[in-house]
Design goal:
Blueprint (H helix, E strand, L loop, with lengths): L9 H20 L4 H19 L4 H8 L7 H8 E6 L12 E8 L2 E8 L5 H7 L6 H16 L4 E7 L6 H5 L2 H13 L5 E10 H5 L6 E5 L3 E3 L3 H8 L6 H8 L3 H6 L5 E3 L10 H19 L4 H13 L10
Parallel strand pairs: 3-4, 4-5, 5-6, 5-7, 6-8
Antiparallel strand pairs: 1-2, 2-3
């Protein structure tokens, strides 16, 4: 798969191109350029460590939006078996931006839910760029209730810039659909694990994100608003998105420090799009570990711990002075 470099990766891409050209030329003409190749390779490795070891929040946002990053269907194809997709909310229609069904992850039979983006114009239009309508969230609720009925754990894969904000979505009550999901997820009597594999935008993410454990990939983000949206409000200019990403503290490490996620899953150097199989394998292993741990709790204990987890978020200490 030929990868398109991001803006901050272009110096690395130039070095890679020079190494490839020298290697091809040396092989054809027997120039004996092994010393030069080793020197360039060492320079490339040092440059990679420098770039990827000091990524800004905005650069991580760019990585997580890379069009060749693995999406939900790729995780299912590479890391799950016995996958059965179930469609429809039984009230309006089937939303292709939020999909779900039955699958086996490791040793666990689960109900999976998640956002699905597209890779080209046609697929993006079908998937609505990963922005679900109300019927998507109602489909997710139907599947979560199915999981509760048959005592199957729920695994949510979050990857959306946000729920669809258009007129049709508002006409069909998107806010109400998300609010109902949030309320009902608190009362599920089965283990719930959410993993942020890409963008975790606003209520669009929370609509399937109330969980006993929340995992996040190293370069993913989870935020009440996108950096561009925040910049438009605070600075009146989307060009301030890098500053907004910094101020929002939306990166995985910040979220872990704030206690909003439970575990950060490392990605291959340069991002998940550079090695799908390693990324998927690592994610499935962590999900399986969490499901095994949660499986030891009773339904009442799960609900109690879930309620306590979210009540503790955003708590503050007030001084009497």
């Amino acid at each position: 798969m030929k990868l398109s470099p991001l803006e901050f990766e272009k110096p690395l891409a130039e070095l890679e191109k020079r190494i490839e050209e020298l290697r091809n030329l040396s092989g054809k003409q027997k120039l004996g350029a092994e010393g030069d190749l080793q020197s360039l390779q060492k320079k490339l490795e040092e440059a990679r460590r420098e770039v990827y070891g000091n990524l800004t929040p905005w650069q991580r946002v760019q990585i997580v939006r890379h069009p060749q990053r693995p999406y939900l269907l790729d995780y299912l194809r590479l890391g799950a078996t016995e996958v059965v997709e179930l469609g429809g909310d039984r009230a309006y229609g089937d939303d292709h931006a939020l999909i779900g069904g039955l699958a086996t992850l490791g040793k666990h039979r689960v109900v999976y839910l998640g956002h699905q983006k597209g890779r080209d114009t046609k697929e993006n239009l079908m998937r609505n760029f990963g922005c679900a309508h109300p019927e998507g969230y109602r489909k997710a609720l139907r599947l979560m209730r199915l999981a509760d009925r048959f005592r199957l754990p729920v695994v949510s894969f979050i990857d959306t810039p946000g729920a669809f904000p258009g007129v049709p979505s508002e006409e069909r009550h998107i806010a109400e659909a998300i609010a109902v999901n949030i309320r009902e997820m608190f009362n599920l009597r089965v283990p719930v694990v959410a993993i942020v594999i890409g963008e975790g935008g606003s209520g669009g993410a929370l609509g399937i994100g109330v969980a006993d454990r929340v995992l996040i990939l190293e370069n993913a983000y989870y935020s009440v608003i996108s950096p561009e949206g925040c910049a438009s409000i605070l600075w009146k200019d989307r060009a301030f998105a890098p500053q907004a990403a910094e101020a929002l503290r939306i990166s995985a490490r910040d979220l872990k420090d704030l206690g909003l996620v439970d575990e950060v899953i490392p990605e291959p150097e340069g991002g998940a799009h550079r090695d799908w199989e390693t990324t998927v394998r690592g994610a499935v292993e962590k999900i399986s570990q969490q499901l095994a741990e949660l499986g030891r709790f009773s339904a009442d204990a799960l609900m109690e711990k879930r309620h306590a987890r979210y009540r503790a978020m955003g708590s503050v200490l007030e001084s009497s002075r």
